[in-house]
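FOLDING PROBLEM:
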Amino acid sequence: MKFVAYERAKQGTGASRRLRITGKTPGIVYGGDTQPQLIEIDHNALWHALKKEAFHASVLEMELGGTVSKVLLRDVQYHPYKQLVQHVDFQRVDARTRMTVKVPLHFKGEEESEAVKLHHNLVNHVMTEVQISILPADLPEFIEVDLSGLANAGTVKVSDLKLPKGAKVILHGKPNPVVASAVAPVVEEEAPAAAAPAAEPAKGKKKK
């Protein structure tokens, strides 16, 4: 994906506030061999771009001052209650340097699995993204998780994922976390019907 940014001369809270009033979002680009650079982006264009998954999880082409460079979205700050992007951070990408990035998981095939078709399991997507170390050229927009082979009460773990070329999963000390799991539905047992109260014997009429 490609977007256009412009150089930003002024920084500070007041300058950023004035920039937002004019429909622009302040940002910064850092990394590489150059100093961090202040930028501004058209807010409406940025707002629509942020709704696309690829903008968050792929190498982007940033056009700045007539030069196109490769960057990665690193941070977005939203207004607490307004539909407003307050600030955005990008990192320059070096084609020869591995980077660490979170990639979304896309699940498929659970309806065809034994767990769902035969045993009516409920499938929990325990993880929605995975952090990997990878070269920029090999970075995927997402990693597909095939659940068609999920067995009754079975699990899919990180070691079961088909990773792109050269990718290494960063587990942060967890040995092999679960990505998705099948859980048998809870069957509520019917409470036994309460016994009907015994009828009281009819009382005889009193003699006059």
Summary: The chain is about 10% helix and 40% strand. The radius of gyration is 29 Å.
